[in-house]
């Protein structure tokens, strides 16, 4: 039966890739000027189980910037380094219903709403340890290396493009500085935030990252414990409730898989105790989520009963 299901899954993914590749709605993000230069019709689907069984279709080796999917990993790093209470004092866990780049804090104005929107991610980035940008970049590099199994590489053009134009993120960061949520090294923290968003990944990489989180923080390829199991659990919870921005409620309802999207066009989905699933297509909807990616996840969740609350 397991083998049948495996073959059925592969055949379905191939067919879905064929069916959905023609979807031409949406467009790549252009509020970061350099992102408008991506090839809009690249499309990939990848999956990796916690046993290391890997399967992918389409442009799965094509590299794109991880963008907001980094928020999930940085949140894990902050929890691992500082513990839950310290992080919760600065960043809440409530979904906002606002867009990912909203200039808002939580209802009391003392915390960022959640770590999956820009405010929360910048506050989490503030918690990255190290003396100066160079050391803090090294801390983030090590984290990526543990997930990827190789050195991360930034897309310098995207990094610089966001440094030059990321004024909205600056507004969010200075608002948080004024409320004492982050430390007085705002430009450095923003630079680090832009750097981690510009890291290049493939759809295959994302599926592997998902497999690590699904495996309670142990990278199945290396055997290394990247984050503690309790941290992986907290990452999964915020991914489910906040990972798809203001589409998170609908996503939890229809797809029911903890996930994180990025404006680079990637979506990372995590099926606990099973593995990671990822899509890449840079045509985005109004929430900033990949249109083809959302379609793929909806179909696969439905056909393979992957919703968390589906009966076994
Ligand atoms: N770097 C992007 C930004 O801060 C990430 C946003 C995203 O992927 N939603 O605007």
TrEMBL record:
<feature type="binding site">
    <location>
        <position position="68"/>
    </location>
    <ligand>
        <name>substrate</name>
    </ligand>
</feature>
<protein>
    <recommendedName>
        <fullName>Glutaminase</fullName>
        <ecNumber>3.5.1.2</ecNumber>
    </recommendedName>
</protein>
<feature type="binding site">
    <location>
        <position position="162"/>
    </location>
    <ligand>
        <name>substrate</name>
    </ligand>
</feature>
<comment type="similarity">
    <text>Belongs to the glutaminase family.</text>
</comment>
<feature type="binding site">
    <location>
        <position position="245"/>
    </location>
    <ligand>
        <name>substrate</name>
    </ligand>
</feature>
<feature type="binding site">
    <location>
        <position position="193"/>
    </location>
    <ligand>
        <name>substrate</name>
    </ligand>
</feature>
<comment type="subunit">
    <text>Homotetramer.</text>
</comment>
<dbReference type="InterPro" id="IPR015868">
    <property type="entry name" value="Glutaminase"/>
</dbReference>
<feature type="binding site">
    <location>
        <position position="169"/>
    </location>
    <ligand>
        <name>substrate</name>
    </ligand>
</feature>
<feature type="binding site">
    <location>
        <position position="118"/>
    </location>
    <ligand>
        <name>substrate</name>
    </ligand>
</feature>
<feature type="binding site">
    <location>
        <position position="263"/>
    </location>
    <ligand>
        <name>substrate</name>
    </ligand>
</feature>
<dbReference type="GO" id="GO:0006543">
    <property type="term" value="P:L-glutamine catabolic process"/>
</dbReference>
<dbReference type="GO" id="GO:0004359">
    <property type="term" value="F:glutaminase activity"/>
</dbReference>
<dbReference type="InterPro" id="IPR012338">
    <property type="entry name" value="Beta-lactam/transpept-like"/>
</dbReference>
<keyword id="KW-0378">Hydrolase</keyword>
<dbReference type="Pfam" id="PF04960">
    <property type="entry name" value="Glutaminase"/>
</dbReference>
<keyword id="KW-0007">Acetylation</keyword>
<dbReference type="GO" id="GO:0006537">
    <property type="term" value="P:glutamate biosynthetic process"/>
</dbReference>
